[in-house]
Amino acid sequence: MKLNIGVIKGDGIGPEIVSEAMKVLDRIGEVFGHECCYTQLLMGGASIDVNGVPLTDETIGLARASDAVLMGSIGGDAGTSPWYQLEPSKRPEAGLLKIRKELNLFANLRPAVLYDELKDACPLKEEIIKDGFDMMIMRELTGGLYFGERKTVDIDGVRTAYDELTYNEKEIRRIARRGFEIAAKRRKKVTSVDKANVLDSSRLWRNVVEETAKDYPDVALEHMLVDNCAMQLVKAPGQFDVILTENMFGDILSDEASMVAGSIGMLPSASLNETKFGLYEPSGGSAPDIVGKGIANPIAATLSAAMMLRFSFDLDMEANTVENAVSQVLREGYRTADIMAAGKIQIGTREMGEKICSYI
Ligand code: ATP
Ligand code: MG
After folding, report:
1. Most ligand 1 atoms within 8 A of CB, residue of 74, 256, 338 to mutate
2. Do 282 and 304 form a contact (C-beta atoms < 8 A)?
3. Is 255 part of the annotated catalytic residue set?
4. Domain 1-105+271-360 classified CATH 3.30.9.10?
5. What is the pTM of this model?
6. Looking at domain 123-261, which CATH architecture does it have?
7. How far, rounded to the nearest angstrom, does the alpha carbon of residue 284 sit from its chain's CA centroid?
8. Residue 122 pLDDT level (bands cut at 50, 70, 90)
9. Which of 37, 72, 150, 308 could in theory staple to 280 by disulfide, Cβ–Cβ 3.0 to 4.6 A?
10. How far, in Å, from the CA of 4 to the mean position of ligand 1?
11. What is the pLDDT of residues 8-28, one digit of tens each?
């Protein structure tokens, strides 16, 4: 099959790690008989340098015309980069928020998996992680506090600020459906996370998730308050399969979960809309501290490409092949600097990409 892939290499380590992920995709194409056609797209700092703005209509159009977009990372060092002299709406990250909204990418998926081979990088006690964990955090990405009205006013000389948190039932239902569909293909459990003891938006969330659950009788549903969930993630992470939650809770919990899994350089993400289209990117950022050193871990970008094969192209076998190749490389003891441990063999970004290809 022909895979039309938009590629945003982006800023910082983005170009280094995406190049390796593309090699892996090409290797998959060779082995399974697919043709990967790439369109390079500019966004973030790279777009500011050329076009003066972080995201152009041309890039949005080209992204729309692709089946899926693979992205590196956006942004740079806020202390030193001239991009951050610009007003917030013109900085690299503004492009990211805009493309999510323009392409209606409402479902953000971030798996947090503890690789057997990397248990030594996990900050949790051995007894807690002896059975490992493998969860998928599903964060609503285009609603809630991030997109509500906000203002700061003066009331009798006292500065007062408002941020509005709004969800309607349609927004909740579409993310809930996505969550149940994904859980149905995994271990068939959804933990819906809210603050229903306090917030109206959470009470509606809970109601709509319960209504939606009726269409998925094979999937177990439980509700959990967000404060308890934050605690359970470090106490017993193995209990989770799919965590379904709103925008800000998801932001916070997914960062917590990725730290619990050990290394930011390992974790991919996907942002999906109602179609098969998706934007796939590593969970980590542009890592200005290691740019150009050839030591960035390309595994998160590579696993993002695997998520793309699975969700946008329904190529489960190909996705599994990539994931197995990554596990194999780790099992053989090859590590980039960020996941290095005693007795292992340290390799750079490029060698890691080549090793993964060699196991496909
Ligand atoms: P952003 O705001 O874009 O999320 P950030 O400020 O959270 O960025 P990152 O760019 O994610 O920060 O970097 C955090 C730390 O993780 C840095 O020390 C960076 O070098 C490291 N890091 C991030 N991604 C990788 C990677 N792929 N390989 C190795 N180290 C990484
Ligand atoms: Mg970050």
Report:
1. 338
2. yes
3. yes
4. no
5. 0.92
6. 3-Layer(aba) Sandwich (3.40)
7. 9
8. confident
9. 308
10. 28
11. 999 999 999 999 999 999 999
